Amino acid sequence: MYLIIDIGNTLHKVAVFSEKGELLEKHKYRQVTVARLAQLFAQHHFSHAILSSVGKYNTDIEIFIKKHCPLIVLSFGTPLPVSIKYLTPKSLGPDRVANAVGANKLYPNQNLLSIQSGSCLVCDFINAQNEYLGGSIAPGIDMRFKALRHYTRKLPLIQKNTPRQLVGANTEESILNGVVNGIVFEINGTIAAYSQQFGDLKVLLTGGDTDLLQKSIKFPIFAAPNIVLWGLFEILRYNVEK
To answer: Number of helices and strands (H, E) in the chain?
Structure first.
């Protein structure tokens, strides 16, 4: 068994994979703890583990895991099954690396645009030569709602939902339309621009807001909500086999 841990900005995700690549379990926490990991280790025999982090976590979990199996903490120096052509690779987030590896595993030797819509809206591009070139980072849906509330005196903080109509008839609808439709227009425009520059293109959509957005994307997409976990698994398997 392989243990996969993805520490995000909002949620901590823990997954159990078989060595053949079957996703057997997936858990989401506000915070991964030693107690929670101990329960998993009591249920499974893990031969290897990988941890990726863009958020804060208690380093006690690293100590605990290392007592039970080899652990890879994904970093700039970790060997990868794709080539990184990013100009500042040391600043590249491990979630973006895992996203690129997972997307490339699904569609090798093809131009790929993988879009993560979560805390941030992140686009990552991998070309047909299996090279990661980079992409873009912008505020995600929740961040945009919070920014409107924080930087104004009277605009309310609202809950995200699917806009019912194009024209917002009140302040809440106007905010919802501006944020959600703005994200949709941004995604559609980004896909169009990449398609124009690179030609034939596979597009993946992942992240916590996938269900909210995917029906509004006017281009063919493949919804891949677990692509970062799959990418981490592939990085771990690549290093174990190497």
So the answer is: 8, 11
When the pLDDT of each residue in the chain is averaged and rounded to a whole number, the result is 93
Helix, strand or coil, per DSSP, at residue 88: coil
In a domain, 236, yes or no: no
Helix (H, G, I), strand (E, B) or coil at 17: strand
Q: Which two tokens stand for residue 123?
A: 């686009």
- pLDDT-derived band at 177 (thresholds 50, 70, 90) equals very high
Angle made by CA atoms 115, 222, 232, in degrees to the nearest 5: 60
User: pLDDT band at 118, cuts 50/70/90?
Assistant: confident
| Domain end call among 73, 100, 124 | 73
Q: State mean pLDDT over 133-159.
A: 94
DSSP per-residue codes, 153-222: SSPPP------SSSS-SSHHHHHHIIIIIHHHHHHHHHHHHHHHHHSS-EEEEESTTHHHHGGG--S--E
Range of the domain at 111: 83-230
Count Cα neighbours of 76 within 13 Å in the Cβ-side half-sphere: 8
> Does 60 participate in catalysis according to the annotation?
no
Residues 135 and 113 in one domain: yes
Active-site residue identified among 6, 60, 95, 209: 95
Do 10 and 68 lie in one domain? The reply is yes
Tell whether pTM > 0.70.
yes
Give the number of residues written for the chain.
242
